[in-house]
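At this stage, I put together one protein's amino acid sequence and its backbone structure tokens, which the following lines show:
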Amino acid sequence: MCLSKGTGSNSTMALDKLFVYGTLLSELGHPMSHRLKKEAVCIGKGYLWGHLYDLGEYPGLIPGEEGQSRVYGEVYQLQDPERSLRWLDAYEGIGEGELEPWEYERMVLKVFLRDAGVWEDCWVYLYVLSPEQLPLIEQGDYLAFKKLLD
């Protein structure tokens, strides 16, 4: 369930949690995941309701209804949300100076933190273009999907 959306420095609100499900996953070792680990603390694994699609070099997440398929990832607590979200928006190709239409939009969704057993509001980058021609990552787990490809 979407609570709000935002892009750019005026929309960071007070929210300091970020759910990642693709190239920013710590185990993938992407340079941007290393940067994220320097600016945030991973507080655990989580999931949200949705569908994950293979866009080639990275995945796209479309939110779903409760009880539908899950998308798995990690939740980070950002030390300086305004600073981190600024570079994350640029990495995801959204915000000021980026050409439209954007592939992603930063939204607040409920994410279930597995270890804590609670739902938390988190920033999530959602794919906003049509997934019609894209392959579905059926297990909702990009890390497992990448391991199958390797």
Q: What stands out?
A: The two ends are 34 Å apart (CA to CA). Residues 81-91 form the longest helix (11 residues). Residues 43 and 76 are 6 Å apart (CA to CA).
